[in-house]
Amino acid sequence: MSFIYNIALALGFVILSPRFLYDAITKGKYAAGFKQRLGLVPDFDAAGRHVVLLHCVSVGEVNAALPLARRLKDTFQDVALVVSTTTKTGQQVANEAYKDVADLIVYFPFDFKFAVKRFLKRIQPGVVLLTETELWFNFVRLSYKSNARVVVVNGRLSERSFKRYTWIKGFMKRLLGYVDLALMQTNADATRLMALGIRGSKVKVIGNLKFDHDLAVKENALTREFRERFGISPERPLILAASTHDPEERYVLEALESEPHLCRLMLVPRHPERFDSVERLLIKSSYTFVKRTSPRSDADRSADVILLDTVGELRFAYPLAEIVFVGGSLIPHGGQSVFEPAAVGKAIVTGPYTENFSAVVDELLRTKALRQTPIATDESQISERLREEFTDLLSNEAKRTELGRNAAAAMLDNRGAVDKTLKYIEPLIKGRG
Description:
45% of the residues lie in helices and 15% in strands.
């Protein structure tokens, strides 16, 4: 099976090579870090310290793992922390968020044996922490064979992914045999992983690291800059549409078009490559708008819509909002993270499709800390259902306050995943001595 896997991996790379070549010419996202992804990361001198590799795929995992990274460095003075990401946006956010925590930040290698071997030879990790369920066969196998301890942290396995993996259950059982420890978010995640073949003794349920999320003090400076530049004030409350996907921006704009002057809107598309298309949508609309990346102007303080066309600044904007709509939820995508707005006590609204974060959404619904629109029977209802939620919350400050207070309380009540994670990985780190 591993032979077939490596052949399929090579064929896939050949098929995608025109995409890589085009991106190399245009400096697109797929070409970013290409050399490092072949294993050619900088030589790393750990100066005798234990090397821990923390791998985060993209922005969500980078933000989720930050509290763990900070505690890891504070707890183990003899640890050299290397952080890797897969995506360009993840790398950009990691370089800012982890600049005072990580000893090195690199791109994760392609799963070719030669690339993985180069990577491991240069980094020489003793412990590998893979966030969520980012399991690549050659990387996990070669890490294990290099005597590194392989740990899944903040692990999750959706029902959809589980069903796909059951088609290759034998292969997954072999892959999971190289994992030393799997620290899963929920009992359901743990049960699914064990059904794929991992030994139950290797699996622990520790909760979600994102409940331990805190905004660092230094984030307040950019929040204040946004407040001053864009003139954010309670007189015209801000609705923040976070991590939106196509066509959610259109739905949000339609939901507010009847009374646009009651509030202001900040749009934050999930993917940077969509910034231009969202700008074109705004140009065609009846709304006035400004962009974060444009030079300052008098229009900044009065525009109906603010387009946050930057990477890594969304979390600084959450404290400004009265209402946060979390994207990826009005379409069958599965939703984006609700943890960050909950951590700062905001009134949260989502669409009906939140299976990617079903456990936390269920908890927030149970504690009356979130509003969720129902599934629409036709497209015209999507904006209408969203309008009903926005109108109700904009007209009732007490309801907004209660939702936000309940969300912050739910975050506080479910904290502790970082402590549990450190408890389980401490013997592995000390065992590297």
